[in-house]
Amino acid sequence: MGKLLIVGTVAFDAIETPFGKTDKILGGAATYISLAASQFNIKSAIVSVVGDDFPQEHMDLFTNKNINVSSLEVVKGGKSFYWKGKYHNDLNSRDTLVTELNVLADFSPAVPEDFKDADVVMLGNLHPSTQMSVINQMAKRPKLIVLDTMNFWMDNALPELMEVIAHIDVITINDEEARQLTNEYSLVKAAEKIQQLGPKYVVIKKGEHGALLFHKTEVFFAPALPLEEVFDPTGAGDSFAGGFAGYLTETENISFNNLKRAVIHGSNLASFCVERFGTERMKDLQKNEANERLLQFKELTQFDIELQ
Amino acid sequence: MGKLLIVGTVAFDAIETPFGKTDKILGGAATYISLAASQFNIKSAIVSVVGDDFPQEHMDLFTNKNINVSSLEVVKGGKSFYWKGKYHNDLNSRDTLVTELNVLADFSPAVPEDFKDADVVMLGNLHPSTQMSVINQMAKRPKLIVLDTMNFWMDNALPELMEVIAHIDVITINDEEARQLTNEYSLVKAAEKIQQLGPKYVVIKKGEHGALLFHKTEVFFAPALPLEEVFDPTGAGDSFAGGFAGYLTETENISFNNLKRAVIHGSNLASFCVERFGTERMKDLQKNEANERLLQFKELTQFDIELQ
């Protein structure tokens, strides 16, 4: 059974959208990644840190999903990372109201012994030095290292980010960030330039407009499912990454055709995530629900055409 | 052979994009629609109006493509419709700098006798009363009436627009306009509401993010081809409409599966349009070039996935 190592934040989020607001609820990149990845038949572990304000019920959620939390460090007397944000009316942009790093400020990741041979490493959004430290702790080169990052690190830790980018296989990044990183407006050109920095595969996430997968001259596009209700976009990108990495860990097949399927699985799981606040939808998502919606993705994009 | 009747502006455009600017060049909705539709094996005619400043070479372009211009009225001493616009850096938005209606102000459309039994009517962007007048002149109900419109008419002629919408089969509209028309942010809900106004099919155009086709509970998504260079978006929506209507006229098959193909053909032709200024790319486009790019659309979106 394939092993997936997940690095990223485990946090409290307070979220406001046009449809309501929440107090501190479970959030964080590693949380969404691991919940999405738990849809697949794999072994997974989280490397992260929380304070002792982190409730046992959240820990139980992970263990009940067979997510190994032996390296989810609990700092005595510490407070968990906290983010508060408010989405604008169109849900495509948001303001960060509060960011409290707390225990994350001094976090030094420790990869569990039995995941130092993980097949896939999913580096969720975190300081690039922390991501690099995880790569360096691996006993052997994983079959696939996937990196998710954001503009904050381009602005504040570009040299460290460039070093991580040079060591990975797949980068997932949103369209504006791809443009910022490369100074290219065309996403085709941006993806070309990013491949020259190291990654063989570039996934550009466009939110409600879907995601593009680039590899050399090949391009694949996965739409986002048009939904009646989008409630809360928090965690959509991480759920995408978790579905992508989880599927590749299960199938252990790093071909372009299989990466296409991984992008579809990622889009599929992200489409559930946004239907409820926080992790509400993901934590109870059933395999048959995910499978049914995969059929909708097929319906949505498949066509036959004859050339004359 | 199927007959397509095209209504819309034939005009002069002056365009400024981040990549350059043009003097007055050939433009207009009916121009782009007819050039795109001329890729198909159909009979087509334009109903429109120009002034006697409209050069013979443009008329020849239409006739050389077998586009009937007997009802492209030339007003002696009149000036052709003129639009001048400037695109912003991201090419997704633009400012209109000049709009001179000229001969269009008093335009009263006359459908040519031999197109009163057209199979498909493509109502390009124009005053809804003009569009309605064309519908009223048809000797028999066309198999399909397609309407393209824009927010300007929602703001300035909503009752007339609603009347046309009640008489058509397919509306093509962009995402912001769909939201404005229905007061729904979700495009799924917007498409439902628009279907209640009359059209059985709703095509929502999202520019560089592709197009969605809705019919009852069915949805189909056609991506825009990711391009290295987008030079000038002018006419992309009209080329899409022309490809869509042209393909349906040729195939004479109004099933959802065939409408899917029509959306792909529309997206395909629009992808050429934006590669050069104005009609430059469309006027010389060859069938084999269009066919080759259709294969890219297949590559871009087709995947196989097994459910477990």
TrEMBL record, chains A, B:
One of its GO terms (cellular component) is cytosol. InterPro entries: Carboh/pur_kinase_PfkB_CS (IPR002173), PfkB_dom (IPR011611), Ribokinase-like (IPR029056). GO terms for molecular function: kinase activity. The keyword RNA-binding does not apply. The keyword Transferase applies. This is Sugar or nucleoside kinase, ribokinase family. Residues 21-280 form the Carbohydrate kinase PfkB domain. Keywords: Kinase, Transferase. It comes from the Bacteria. It holds the Pfam family PfkB. It comes from Arenibacter nanhaiticus.
